[in-house]
Every structure is written in structure tokens, then in C-alpha cells.
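Task 17 of the worksheet. Students: predict the tertiary structure of the chain below and write it out as C-alpha cells. Keep your answer in the requested format; marks are given for formatting as well as content.
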Amino acid sequence: MSNLFSWPPPKRKIKIITVIPVSILLVEQTLYEKTLLIGWLARALAMFRVDEVLVFRDSESSYEDLEVMTDILNYLLVPPYIRKYVVGKKDTLRYVGVLPPLNISTHPLLDDDVELLPIREGVVLDVRGLLAKVHVGLRDYVIVEIPRGFINDVRIGSRVLIRITKKKPLRGVIVDAESLPWYVGYKVVVVESIKKIINILRSPNVVGVLTTKSGNDAYGVVKEVIEGGVSTLMLLFGNHKKDFNELVGHEYSTLLDDLIKFKINTIPFQGVRSVRTVEAIYSTLAVVNELLHVLGQHKH
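Model answer:
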């Protein structure tokens, strides 16, 4: 029997991008309710190892809701032990204290073994020459040598990823997330123009997938994606009333129909009249995650 749990979790060979319209917040009336919804969204993104979330300000949404969504998604990526150093007070974050933590691999607990979990995110507290003092949630600070490629990016208050290289005394090196073999969280990208999404879909190794109740079974889609050697899967979600391609106007809707290769429905014969976006995100990411693993293992 294969072991389906590994910590830290591995990166996928196929990158997953989700496109989320800000108008999904229209179903909630208060900041408190919107905060809860975004918290569950963030958990889904991290749980199923989404690489990027494109937060799309569609025509039915507001700039206020765009700020709320991006602020909370980014806030949850910050390890709890450094939030007081890097997160200022904002009205958009008024209720984030009720949200469950992401507990991704770069947010380790105080007592986690640094040899088993050597990668930690921290905040730079002091810089002297090519050395920096970094707080990574341990009882002692880590002294790290700053690689020459990071010199311009490392200053007091900077967030950095650290690989612990020595326990007594604590020593480490700054590492780049892209170079790691593990999943370390999603990246939030704000998109205010559909043209940016269209340009990504035009990339040769990107496959766009529209999630819709009129879609097909996901098995054949994921199988074709794996066999086609695709590097990036873009999943496009709508809001509580419209599919994504219905949120962008007729001109771009026609263009999207030409660029989006697949349509999937991961809740066949749904038992409720309408499925909310966060519910669709959980079901879609769960199905795609399973199929990418199972079919990827059996690829000839």
C-alpha cells in the first residue's frame, strides 16, 4: 500500500492556478461573514497545494471586496509568530482572529524538530554586513549568511525562507522557494484585466479548464492533461450565479471559449439547486488532486 502522506508535502510536477472572481463575496453581507468565507477559501488553496490564486476583479465586484480578499489571503500566508513584526493594523483584517491557521510546512510549531522540518519562514530583525539575525519561531534567533543574490532584498523587516543548517548554535541559509522540492503555500496575484488571464491561457504549456455544471467528467480531462505533457493547469471558477466566462462580457467570452479547452463538473447530479463557489473549489480541487496523483503514477 502506498503512503499518501509526506511532510513537508512535495511539489507537483503540474502547476495549478485557480482564478477566483472577487464577486464570490457578494453572497455575504458583513465583513465578518466575508472573512470566514475567505478563510475557508485559503484552507482549500493550501490543502490541495494550489500554486497561484489569481484574484480577479470582475465587473460585478468592488474595489473594497478586492482589498478584503487579497489582504486576508496574504495575511494567512504569514506565520503566526512573525505577524506582529510584518502585519500592520487594517480594517480589512478586523476579524482574522477567528480563522483557523493554514499550518503549511513553513509555519512550524515551536517544538517541531528542525532536522525533520529544516525550512522555516522568518523575519529579519538585524543586518550586519553579510549576516542577518532572523526570528523563525524558535526560542533563539537564527544567524544566517546572506547570499550575494539576496543582498538587495534582505533588510530589517523582510520576510525570508530559512534552511536551518546547525542547531547549536542556530545557523541557517536563505533559500528561494522556487528551488525547494516542497510545497510552501500559494501565491496571490491581483488581476484587474481579463487580458492578463487571456495572455496566460495563450501560453503553449497552459491548459484552461472551466468549472461549470454543464461540464464533463474530470477523469478524461486530467488524463489528457497528463498525457499531453502540460506544465500548468488553470482552473476558472465563476460566482454564485454565473460561470467565469459569463462574467467578462460578450467580446471576451467568445475569445475565452476558443482558449478554454475543457469544461468539467466535479459534482455530478448535485443535490442542491446551486453550488457556491467555495463549495465548487473544494470539490474540484479534491477531485483534480486525486486524479493527478493516481493517473500520474500510472503514466506510461
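Marker's comment: The domain at 119-177 is CATH 2.40.50.140 (OB fold (Dihydrolipoamide Acetyltransferase, E2P)). The mean pLDDT is 92.
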